[in-house]
Write a structure and sequence with these properties.
Length: 217
């Protein structure tokens, strides 16, 4: 009886290996042959699922986003009032798995400006991340509904910008950014933002605001 192959799972396996290869060797040194070797497959097997290295990278981006969403969903389902700091730490390189994901992200960011397709993918990824973090803030920050729309948008973008910067710093200099320091800095940032948002909400009337768009964090 022929073996039944789960093609979706195999695509995910290849994409996950690509994450590790990019994190270890960098974007330029990552080739389909190297990904295949690390995955234990032939180059032809990988080519059966992906036409180009770029296709593998896009699949890896989608996989990482899905993995983060799954971790966040698990935490929010486990508690009526999820802990915001714990939720947002899911996006930081505080363990080996998340370090690999974040190292892959930073390598990807370095390629965006030179590649039109990756630039379009980055727009989609950015929108997805904004929605994801906005959901975390809405579910876990009791003050969130009380703040005007413009204030919430500024807080959301500040959180995403801070996490991106902290991620890049921790990947570039892991010795300077152990998990404990990352978490302390994120906690401080949330405290500062909560104070600013509370003051802004009492000093200015609420105005209709636009939804966060793809222009950047």
């Amino acid at each position: 009886m022929p073996k039944i192959v789960d093609h979706a799972r195999r695509r995910d396996e290849i994409a996950l290996v690509a994450c590790r290869v990019v994190a270890k060797y960098g974007f330029e040194q990552t080739t389909i042959a190297r990904i295949a070797r690390e995955a234990g497959y032939t180059t032809g097997m990988v080519a059966h699922y992906f036409d180009t290295k770029q296709d593998i990278i896009v699949a890896a981006l989608r996989l990482i986003l899905r993995r983060i969403e799954e971790r966040l969903s698990h935490q929010t389902e486990a508690a009526e009032q999820p802990d915001l700091l714990a939720l947002l730490c899911e996006a930081l390189p505080v363990d080996a798995t998340r370090f690999t994901e974040c190292a892959f992200w930073t390598a990807f960011w370095g390629q965006v400006m030179a590649d039109k397709r990756l630039k379009r993918v980055n727009v989609w990824i950015h929108r997805a991340y904004l929605r994801l973090f906005e959901r975390c803030l809405a579910q876990s920050w009791p003050q969130w509904p009380q703040w005007p729309t413009d204030t919430r948008e500024e807080v959301l973008r500040s959180v995403v910008t801070f996490i991106n910067g902290l991620t890049a710093s921790a990947v570039a200099s892991p010795g300077d950014w152990p998990p404990e320091r990352q978490i302390r800095q994120l906690r401080l940032q949330l405290q500062l933002l909560a104070g600013w948002a509370g003051a802004a909400s009492t000093s200015a009337p609420a105005r209709p605001g636009r939804r966060p768009g793809p222009s950047g964090a």
